[in-house]
Amino acid sequence: MASSHSNYTNSPCAACKFLRRRCTSGCVFAPYFPPDEPTKFANVHRIFGASNVSKILHEVSPHQREDTVNSLAYEAEARLNDPVYGCVGAISVLQRQVSKLQRELEETNADLMRYASSLGGGTTSSYGGQRD
Ligand SMILES: [Zn+2]
């Protein structure tokens, strides 16, 4: 996996290969769409279109481009797997899981409180409230 990233004069990036154009040294796609991951670009192109992806990459600052591409690739794959909901489907599954686990945590904490108070013998609980 130690293929040279800087000197790719004769192997175009996945985007340029897909679009059948010359990959120049300043190609905005090249750092994020290596030739060994052809489906990554194909998915993103199918969902968003190459010109939109290029526009988005030019709009964000260079240090955000990798995250941007990863997000686009994730969204494109999710949309291809689930044309109706896309990544919203995954989000709602995870949200349901979170609220289920939160309920479980609350129940467990309540059990723990009951257990602790049955052991402790009420060192701090005085039913008189504040007497001072
Ligand atoms: Zn390229």
From TrEMBL:
> Which spans of this chain does the record mark as coiled coil?
91-118
Residue ranges annotated for the LOB domain, each copy included: 11-112
Tell me the protein's name.
Answer: LOB domain-containing protein
Family, according to the entry, reads as follows: Belongs to the LOB domain-containing protein family.
Q: Per the UniProt entry, what species is this protein from, by scientific name?
A: Brassica carinata (Ethiopian mustard)
Q: Which PROSITE patterns match?
A: LOB (PS50891)
PANTHER family, per database record: GENOME ASSEMBLY, CHROMOSOME: A02, LOB DOMAIN-CONTAINING PROTEIN 4-RELATED
Segments crossing the lipid bilayer: none
Ordered alphabetically, the record's keywords are:
Coiled coil
